[in-house]
Design brief:
The complex is a heterodimer of chains A (174) and B (501). Chain A has six helices and two strands. Chain A is mainly alpha-helical and 174 residues long. In chain A, strand 1 and strand 2 form a beta hairpin. The two termini of chain A are 31 Å apart. In chain A, 32% of the residues are buried. The N terminus of chain A is likely disordered. The longest helix of chain B has 31 residues. The radius of gyration of chain B is 22 Å and the shape is globular. Chain B is an all-alpha fold and 501 residues long. Chain B has 22 helices and two strands. The chains are: A mainly alpha (174), B mainly alpha (501). At the A-B interface, helix 2, strand 2, helix 3, helix 4 and helix 5 of A face helix 8, helix 9, helix 18, helix 19 and helix 20 of B.
Chain lengths: 174, 501
């Protein structure tokens, strides 16, 4: 568990180089997205007799995105090897990845195990495993957040949250 | 004319003072203060997160609550600035200097009370300004057709230049991404589905609440490590009341803060942080006690906090009268208007004048609620600040999931929120500002629809934009704002350091 909480290993390359690689990857992704939009926009119809068609705006935007990505690429090349103070500082990469993964798992099972069971486990994981809170505190807060939250929204605010759809949870009515 | 305005305002008060709407204003003020106090969740994500909860309410009640949340956050941010030396939101950053110094002298209660009084004065004066401006600008509503509306949207979108921060290229990329996200779904004129990848869920577009909660809420959680915890100082009730000297010294600072905040609030693209910074600057220049600034002078709290709230209320004027959101938080508020079927801008006062006046009246009421409630509740807020951050993080994640799920009662929006949380994290790491994306995400569909409706009227001819004087004027203003960086106009230094951009 130490590794989840502790700081990340220091990258072997300098921060500016890491940033440049990140920026280049982002620029490549943006150009790919823009290229996809250009192709789809042409299929939607760019210009109709009565004026611009559904594809007109997306086409203009995609072209703009390509131009801007190239401009950013030029800027990054110029800045590479430049000012390392620009770096935003270390950030908890592994912790962020675990948080995202836990959210994806929660969202994937929410419709099957229901809000109460799913959120109970999610909160327990974040409090006990990630936050290393004591068991008692973790259980009390997780129960209040999941079961308490469910009834607050369902019964009081009339905002329906999902029930479990798989046995044996359905037998418990959670 | 004046009698009409007073009559409509009184009608607005009648609606806003109904027990139900009063309760919404109260809940909004409390939630707003809570969001301002909590670290890790700013006003943008906070307002967005609560939109799903208001979706089933009547339009007036929903907007009253969201507006109260909006200006409540400004007050909550002050509490952490004064008690913890940590601004809860960017606009209160400057308050830490004298506010925390006052706390160390045992005068935290006085600082918070003066901040509340200043916020109240600033907010009320700015709202009076809104009342005065509403009628003349609202009467423009009858002259607004699709081409003029397009002009207004161009002015709104050109503001992303002002929100750009460090790099113009990256700000424009952010703006274009926002517009592209807005393109997903059924095309507003021809009805063709665009970029839906064959999914029925995307026919209505990507929900902007899920996008904003992910971009601003989740990415913030992902970015910050669990920091060490500090215990706030709890002021005793007896220490809350300012002395006569405190009040006398605060009056000029509150007056200057009101002027600075209100004037800058009117200028779209200026954020509350700029107002509070410039107000602190004004105190340093004009205050009789300027030598004491930095070591716990009451002016250093009164000025910036007044400016901050006058700005927040003043910035509603361009939104209500022109439909131009001046900051990312107001863009989210505008999104809430749109979800309720209200289009902010000149037509609001012709089509939904009762709702508009009820909301304006509620601003006065909300400012009173904040003044009356928040000072006695300081103990409650400090108790919340004592909750360890790891527990707060888990609870914020809980609310992010609930907020995203309840948009359409579907996990699809939870996935959208997660996706944009990761995207927001990447954008923050790459120094791509998030503010332009919010602005274009909200304004993009309106701009496209008005452009294409205009061209439908003119049968495809762009000359329609050159033959109507109001449209020409608006487009010229938009173009001027867009090219302003090329003219090398001097930006206030505060803008470059502005954490909100």
């Amino acid at each position: 568990m130490e590794k989840l909480i502790g700081n990340e290993a220091v990258p072997k390359v300098g921060p500016t180089a890491v940033r440049s690689i990140g920026a280049w990857a982002a620029q490549a992704v943006l150009v790919v997205i823009a290229a996809y939009v250009v192709v789809s926009a042409r299929g939607l119809g760019v210009w109709l007799p009565q004026g611009p068609g559904p594809g007109f705006f997306p086409l203009v935007l995609a072209v703009a995105l390509i131009v801007l990505s190239v401009a950013w690429f030029v800027q990054t090349r110029r800045a590479a090897g430049g000012d390392p103070a620009e770096d935003g500082g270390a950030f908890p990469r592994k912790r962020a990845a675990v948080t995202v993964a836990s959210l994806v798992v929660l969202a994937a099972v929410l419709d099957f195990v229901g809000f109460q069971a799913g959120m109970l486990l999610f909160l327990l994981f974040h409090l006990r495993v990630m936050g290393r809170c004591r068991w008692l505190i973790s259980v009390v807060i997780a129960a209040a957040g999941s079961v308490g939250g469910f009834h607050l929204f369902n019964d009081f605010l009339l905002v329906p949250l999902p029930y479990a759809t798989v046995p044996p949870l359905t037998w418990l009515g959670v | 004319m004046t009698v009409d305005v007073i009559n409509e305002l009184l009608g607005g008060f009648a609606t806003a003072l109904s027990p139900q709407n009063l309760l919404f204003a109260l809940i909004g003020c409390l939630l707003g203060t809570l969001i301002g106090v909590l670290p890790g969740i700013g006003p943008v994500a906070g307002v967005a997160l609560l939109i799903p909860l208001t979706i089933n309410l009547e339009p007036a009640g929903a907007i009253i609550m969201l507006a109260a949340i909006f200006y409540g956050t400004a007050y909550g941010g002050t509490i952490t600035s004064v008690l913890l030396n940590t601004p809860g939101e960017a606009a209160s950053a400057i308050t830490t200097i004298d506010g925390y110094a006052m706390t160390k002298q045992g005068r935290a209660g006085v600082a918070l009370t003066i901040a509340a009084i200043g916020s109240f004065v600033g907010g009320v004066v700015a709202t009076i300004g809104l009342v005065a401006a509403a009628r003349p600008l609202g009467s423009l509503g009858l002259k607004i057709g699709p081409p003029e509306f397009f002009g207004l949207m161009v002015v709104g979108i050109s503001l992303l230049v002002a929100l750009a921060g460090k790099s113009m290229v990256r700000a424009l990329i952010s703006g274009v991404i926002g517009l592209l996200i807005a393109m997903v779904g059924i095309d507003p004129v021809a009805g063709a589905p665009r970029f839906t990848f064959g999914s029925d869920r995307l026919l209505d577009g990507v929900n902007f609440v899920a996008v904003i909660v992910g971009l601003f809420g989740l990415s913030e959680i992902l970015l910050t490590a669990t920091a060490g915890h500090r215990h706030p100082f709890t002021p005793g009730m007896r220490g809350l009341l300012p002395t006569r000297t405190d009040l006398r010294r605060s009056v000029p600072a509150i007056a200057r803060g009101t002027g600075v905040g209100f004037a800058l609030g009117l200028i779209p693209g200026m954020t509350g942080s700029v107002s509070s910074l410039l107000s602190y600057g004004a105190e340093r220049k004009f205050s009789r006690y300027r030598d004491e600034l930095g070591s716990g002078a009451v002016e250093g709290v009164a000025g910036p906090e007044t400016a901050n709230n006058a700005h927040a209320n003043g910035a509603l004027i361009p939104l209500f009268t022109l439909g131009i959101p001046a900051s990312p938080t107001i863009a989210v508020l505008m999104g809430a208007f749109l979800q309720q079927g209200l289009t902010p801008g000149p037509t609001l006062f012709t089509e939904h004048s009762d709702v508009a006046w009820a909301i304006i009246a509620s601003l006065f009421i909300g400012n009173v609620i904040l003044l009356v409630l928040n000072v006695p509740l300081v103990r409650l807020w400090t108790a919340i600040l004592r909750i360890p951050e790891k527990i707060l993080t888990a609870l914020i994640l809980l609310f992010l999931v609930i907020g995203a799920y309840t948009i359409n009662y579907s996990v699809f929006d939870v996935f959208v929120m997660i996706l944009f949380g990761v995207a927001g994290l990447a954008m923050r790491r790459l120094d791509i500002p998030l503010a332009p994306l919010v602005l274009t995400l909200v304004l993009g569909p309106l701009m496209e629809r008005s452009l294409r409706e205009s061209l439908d009227i003119s049968q495809g001819s762009f000359t329609i934009f050159l033959t109507r004087p109001l449209t020409v004027g608006l487009l010229a203003i938009g173009a001027l704002i867009a090219v302003s960086p090329l003219l090398r106009l001097r930006k206030p230094a505060a803008l470059n350091e502005d954490p909100e951009t």
